[in-house]
Write a structure and sequence with these properties.
Blueprint: H1 3-12, E1 17-20, H2 59-66, E2 72-76, E3 88-94, H3 99-106, E4 115-118, E5 123-129, E6 148-151, E7 156-158, E8 171-172, E9 180-181, H4 184-190, H5 206-223, H6 230-248, H7 252-266, H8 270-283
Parallel strand pairs: 5-9
Antiparallel strand pairs: 1-2, 2-7, 3-5, 3-6, 4-5, 4-8
Length: 288
């Protein structure tokens, strides 16, 4: 299956697609502020267009986009056709073979087989989730219990026919298998309320009150970031937040948790958010 084959299969089954970088190109074709195509080393995954707007379900457009210059296929999850009863797509991204199976077993359940795309590291499992849940990219209760990420309505994944930087091709496990409803245990775990909140000022300390306002403003910066600028906005905000923490003695774990929650709300996965935040923490001189 080529990227064009994969893109055509996807749109014929109601999955909205858009072009992403292809590792066969001499230089990354990804766009976005804060992304330098000339030095990019994470090849094959960066959007070549603002995927929240530039996706398509039109076959003719797909042929024009993927029939010429090398492009991988991105799936704009929030733009895909609804499933049964208006359900919305949810993709579970396992970073190793058997990751979701092991997590299901740890919760006392057997993994629910569904549409699966094998990847270079693991697999993407496509499920239908009730639209009323409005799931994002956060792991909820699965933090630390699942080797991977989830992609909700604000996210995207790389589709079948695409080529990973290692040369591995993303492949449909069974082209006849559609997504099935997400199991209840998974939905319950993903909806678990977060324990991380923006730190509140301690009574009577003006410096803490000032710090809290500053952190709230940084969180708003992250929440207001647009696709292509989310990582750079998160990195900048995390740097400022940790610099303030050093002066004010605020718990850095609470800061990191609040930033992760904001970043996953905008469409980053928890793994991406935590990697960026950890980099900012090191730059700010953190050692804990």
């Amino acid at each position: 299956m080529t990227p064009l084959d994969g893109a055509l299969w996807l749109v014929r089954h109601g999955f909205a697609v858009f072009p992403t970088d292809h590792p066969g190109l001499e230089q990354c074709a990804g766009i976005g502020r804060g992304h330098n195509p000339a030095t990019c080393e994470d090849r094959g995954k960066h959007p070549c267009a603002a995927f929240t707007r530039a996706h398509t379900l039109d076959e003719d457009q797909v042929k024009r986009t993927f029939g010429g210059e090398l492009r991988n296929v991105g799936v704009a999850i929030g733009a895909c056709a609804p499933g049964p009863g208006g359900a919305r797509l949810l993709v579970v991204d396992s970073d190793r073979p058997g990751a979701i199976e092991d997590t299901a077993a740890a919760y006392g359940y057997r993994h629910t087989a569904t549409m699966r795309v094998t990847t270079a590291k693991g697999a993407h499992d496509y499920y239908w989730a009730p639209a009323a849940l409005e799931l994002g990219n956060g792991l909820g209760q699965l933090r630390g219990k699942f080797d991977g990420d989830v992609r909700g309505s604000r996210g995207y994944v790389i589709g079948p026919g695409s080529v990973h930087a290692t040369g591995v091709i993303y492949e449909l496990d069974d082209p006849e298998q559609p997504p099935v409803p997400a199991p209840a245990w998974l939905l319950t775990a993903l909806q678990a309320p977060t324990t991380a909140t923006v730190p509140q000022p301690r009574p009577g300390r003006a410096r803490d009150r000032q710090h809290d306002g500053s952190l709230a403003g940084l969180i708003r910066t992250v929440l207001g970031a647009h696709p292509g600028n989310r990582n750079s906005a998160l990195y900048w905000a995390a740097n400022r937040a940790f610099e303030q923490a050093q002066r004010g003695g605020t718990d850095v774990r609470a800061i990191a948790g609040a930033l992760v929650d904001a970043a996953t709300h905008t469409g980053l996965t928890e793994t991406e958010a935590r990697t960026t935040i950890a980099s900012a923490y090191r730059r700010a001189g953190g050692t804990r």
